[in-house]
Amino acid sequence: MRRIDYMTVAGIVAGIGLMAGSLIMGGNPKLFWNVPSLMVTVGGSFAAVLINFSFQDVKNVFGTVKQAFTTDLMDPEELIELFGELARKARREGLLALEDDADRLDDPFFKKGIQMMVDAMEPETIRQILETDMAYMARRHEIGQSIFKTWGNLAPSFGLIGTLIGLVQMLAKLDKPEALGPSMALALITTFYGAIMAYMIFIPLAGKLGLRSEQEMMLHQMMLEGIIAIQSGVNPRILEERLRSFLPAKPKGRQAEGEDVVMGEAADRQF
Q: What pTM was computed for the model?
């Protein structure tokens, strides 16, 4: 289920709101609207992005930007419970019984792994195929992040270019002292636009996409380890504890509980 990332929305709304409030409190906000400055900063930096990347990369990134505002990633604890359930079912009914469970998650990676396991492929082969998929997925994510990082780095530079253009135009009016003030203000607006684009939009978006990529990679790594463990016949409780090792450290009480589970399994094997 796709959920809205309220932190991204709240950050953008708060940033725009605080900035708009500051402009209104400082006087006339219309002074900060200038179409030629937007053309230089937004248009110029976007043109440079097109030079730096392929058309397909730029086209795809506008589709992936929605990942910064929404997420459909599964909760890791729910994923652990699911694999524990699958492991118990495999023990009772065999691996072939898991064929219908490939649709439990709307994730092609999960479906592919479960199907290969049901088809009795070698664990090493499954690992190689899924790790290759993860590597290509990470590469696609890196391209999206790189586009926004590059755009964020270019925007202030084009803001400076716009400022230089404005200064040249201002110097051409030295014989009109009354026009110097407005001309200087217009020259500085392009720098303002470039800073806003870089530090409130593009660089933060690149950071959020990087976080999303890390979360998805962790879930897929958990899926990979869970699939290999089920095929190897690992005890469901041990499998769940092994997958929990991917998560941040739990309080001591939770760690002690996990140790009791593993010790209990060891004791069962002794008897």
A: 0.79
